[in-house]
Design goal:
Elements: E1 49-51, H1 54-62, E2 71-73, H2 76-90, E3 94-101, E4 108-115, E5 140-147, E6 150-157, H3 173-176, H4 179-186, H5 211-225, E7 230-236, E8 239-246, H6 248-257, E9 260-263, E10 276-282, E11 288-295, H7 301-314, E12 322-325, H8 329-338, E13 343-346, H9 348-359, H10 365-377, H11 382-396, H12 402-409, H13 450-477, H14 487-493, H15 498-510, E14 514-523, E15 526-535, E16 538-550, E17 555-558, H16 562-566, H17 571-579, H18 598-601, H19 616-634, H20 638-665, H21 669-678, H22 696-709, H23 711-717, E18 721-722, H24 732-735, E19 739-744, E20 750-751
Helix pairs in contact: 1-2, 7-8, 9-10, 10-11, 14-15, 19-20, 22-23
């Protein structure tokens, strides 16, 4: 059996993402069958020359040597870029001549790169008045995927039948598109950055059959059903590279709970077929809430910068206080550029999950893993961590381990001992037995494609909204059961949501294990205590926790950092308050974001509070954002819905009544300006544009008939249509890398204020 050949003969330009021809065959035997022939090879025939990281590839770009059979590359893009750089040095251009893909997975497994002068022009193209460049040159290289992460050069022909000169390379498209990438690599890259796409200007988001149509259908539907739906595409020469979208509920959730955000890159790894990354926060019930979604072509700094700027624009320019990500140098650079005032915290759980994979080659792997756990989880102070880490490195002789060196350099972003002053709303793990659960767990699997994901996407949102509604009901109408006689427990049972109260209640119960509170130091109003605690699961082990208490301001601070990490006081701090006879938790330690009535008390910060009443766009946006709160409260129950609907209808009736009065009695601001400009003394004589003068009775009759026939039509007439070509209304030019497109609101027409800075 022979695998089908997806040939791309006589291509006009080089492309790393060219569409291939497919046949209805279903086999995966890696045998090519084309004009050039394919000689079977074995791995033992070549001396391996491997280029598998950024620095080595960048070095080949500076001083490229001729291709040699046996060279190996980490990715296809690395191989393409190497041959392109060699071509630039010699003086010719390249393109993709043939490309083979496996039928089942659509995975590339063999490619032929050739000189751009290869072959001859097809006869049907001879009527086009262009210079003849196809002269039958035979120079080429053939590369083949020999393992899941290795491409090997198995054939090379270096002779050309034409003159080659480096002075002419500027006219070849493959080199014009590479200049920006070469310059970036020549300036240097950190070893920790994943830059598998050295020719990222040529990359595009790869969509399988049916996925583009499914994405388009989803966007069109959301535009029709959600007036505050936002999306933005990053286009480069017509190729879709990155995309971001957020519905109205996600944007409203950020207004309430945007203090701490997790950017989840779990699905960008090779384990998943879906190149997807969501923004996730946590609500007042401790539940994950979605704050936007993205599709990314790669994990480069450029893609992350584009995405973060887009997300920031969607959220009215308000940055989060803390953002939590995986350990990734590209992310680190992008966050420093877009969110300079935001605390960047790296996921401790993800880093510790990688430890077995990164350290499994060590002779004393289990011992090193245990020592690392003790250093990270067992250190309450920075100096304790530094001492434990140094002891681990010296004892096991692992000073040269690159991964340990890299995570140690970034220790201030993920080790709990360094993060006592950074609020994380319980979204960052600090204990060994804690784990991280993604918002889309159970909906996205290893082989989930975009089409299937969009089908499950709304189901995941509906389930999340139902869980929140249920938690709202339980917190408002079902009081939690008390387990102790502690006054702190009773106090917060009336304030916090059920889930957050249960977590705090556990701290109250754990006060039983804090058997001794002793004063050790006094400095003015500040008293330092040591609270002794029996370690859970090992009653013979006792740990000391230092707690500082300010008598004057009734402030308490524990060395464990529970309040900063989770937003409620720990058992050690509660023990000190109880020791000092404080019967109620001070108000500064009762966070509003955990209250059951939080959405009643808090007005989301959607940007500037000042509104220019003469600017219809700003007025629309301001009113829309305020109406969001009514919508949020109105979906809690049927009674809430009826009250909210009646309130909106009453408000609309009052506004319409006022509009009738103003149309007949009060000159508008526009009319005043017109009168001033034309020096008209009697404002009542100013002609109202677009409407003949009517008597009060006539106007009421016309308006009454119109509204009674079709309320929706009357409302739409009050929105002034804007030509889609009007500049500065879209967001494309604000955050696009090359070209960007933004659509929101109603399909077919763009109205003032629809989806502007919500």
């Amino acid at each position: 059996m022979a695998d089908h050949l997806c040939a791309q003969n006589e291509m006009e330009e080089p492309s790393l993402n060219s569409e291939t021809l497919t046949e209805n065959e279903d086999n995966e035997i890696e045998v090519g069958n084309n004009d050039d022939g394919l000689q079977p090879t074995s791995s033992g025939e070549f001396d391996m020359i491997v280029y598998n990281n950024v620095n080595s590839v960048a070095q080949r770009m500076k001083d490229p040597s001729p291709p040699v059979v046996g060279m190996e590359f980490e990715t296809y893009e690395d191989a393409y870029n190497f041959y392109n750089c060699y071509a630039k040095n010699v003086g010719f251009g390249i393109r993709v001549r043939n490309l083979w893909r496996r039928q089942k997975t659509n995975e590339k497994y063999m490619v032929v790169l050739c000189c751009s002068n290869q072959g001859f022009r097809r006869k049907k193209d001879t009527h086009r008045l262009r210079p003849e460049t196809r002269i039958g040159c035979l120079a080429m290289v053939r590369i083949k995927l020999v393992s899941s992460e290795r491409w090997r050069l198995i054939e090379a022909k270096l002779e050309h039948n034409h003159l080659t000169t480096p002075a002419s390379v500027q006219f070849y498209k493959s080199h014009r598109m590479m200049n920006g990438v070469i310059r970036k690599l020549e300036l240097g890259c950190d070893a920790g950055v994943q830059t598998n796409d050295l020719v990222d200007e040529l990359k595009k988001l790869e969509l399988k059959e049916g996925e583009a149509e499914a994405l388009e259908n989803y966007l069109c539907k959301m535009q029709l059903v959600s007036p505050s739906f936002f999306y933005l595409m990053d286009l480069n020469n017509g190729r879709l590279r990155n995309m971001f979208w957020a519905d109205g509920r996600s944007r409203a959730s950020y207004g309430y709970f945007g203090d701490v955000v997790v950017f989840d890159t779990t699905y960008l790894t090779k384990k998943y077929d879906l190149s997807f990354a969501p923004f996730v926060g946590v609500n007042h019930h401790g539940q994950s809430v979605l704050m936007g979604c993205s599709l990314l072509v790669d994990e480069s700094v450029e893609s992350f910068v584009w995405l973060f700027k887009t997300w920031l624009t969607c959220m009215s320019g308000r940055s989060p206080s803390t953002i939590i990500t995986d350990h990734n140098r590209a992310l680190q650079k992008a966050i420093a550029e877009v969110f300079p005032e935001t605390h960047h915290r790296m996921s401790l759980w993800h880093i510790m999950e990688k430890a077995p994979e990164k350290l499994k080659g060590l002779h004393e792997f289990e011992e090193v893993k245990m020592a690392m756990n003790i250093a990270v989880y067992g250190s309450l102070r920075v100096d304790e961590f530094e001492t434990a880490w140094e002891d681990m490195v010296q004892r096991y002789g692992i000073q040269e381990n690159e991964w340990l060196q890299m995570v140690y350099e970034d220790r201030q972003h993920w080790v709990p001992a360094f993060l006592k002053d950074t609020f994380s709303a319980g979204m960052a793990t600090t204990q060994r037995n804690q784990s991280v659960k993604s918002f889309f767990d159970g909906y996205v699997h290893k082989h989930t494609n975009l089409k299937d994901f969009l089908g499950n996407y709304e189901l995941a949102l509906v389930n999340a909204y139902q869980k929140e509604a249920k938690a709202d009901f339980e917190s408002r109408y079902l009081g939690p059961a008390l387990k102790t006689r502690c006054c702190y427990e009773r106090q917060l049972s009336q304030v916090y949501t059920c889930e957050i109260f249960r977590k705090f209640q556990h701290e109250v119960e754990e006060m039983f294990f804090c058997f001794n509170t002793a004063q050790i130091h006094v400095s003015g109003p500040i008293i330092t205590y040591i609270v002794k605690e029996r370690v859970e699961g090992n009653a013979s082990e006792i740990r000391d926790y230092e707690v500082q208490y300010n008598i004057a301001d009734v402030e308490v601070q524990c060395i464990c950092g529970c309040f900063s990490f989770n937003g409620y006081l720990c058992k050690h701090a509660l023990s000190v308050l109880n020791y000092n006879g404080v019967e109620e938790i001070p108000p500064q330690y009762i966070l509003a974001r955990w209250r059951k009535d939080f959405k009643h008390l808090y007005v989301p910060n959607h940007g500037s509070a000042t509104v220019d009443i003469d600017n219809s766009v700003q007025c629309y946006d301001h009113l829309y954002k305020r109406a969001i709160q009514i919508v949020e409260e109105g979906v809690i129950s049927q009674e809430h819905f009826k009250v909210a609907l009646q309130t909106l209808e009453d408000s609309l009736s009052k506004v319409r009544l006022l509009e009738n009065i103003e149309l007949n009695t009060t000159p508008t601001t526009v009319q005043r300006n017109m009168a001033e400009a034309h020096k008209v003394q009697d404002l009542s004589q100013v002609k109202r544009p677009g409407r003949p003068k009517q008597s009060r009775g006539q106007m009421e009759k016309i308006c009454g008939d119109t509204w009674s026939k079709n309320d929706t039509q009357a409302v739409s007439k009050r929105l002034r249509p804007i030509d889609s070509a009007t500049p500065n209304l879209g967001l494309g030019n604000l955050v696009g890398t090359q070209e960007s497109t933004c659509q929101s609101g109603i399909v077919g027409s763009l109205f003032i204020g629809v989806d502007q800075d919500v």
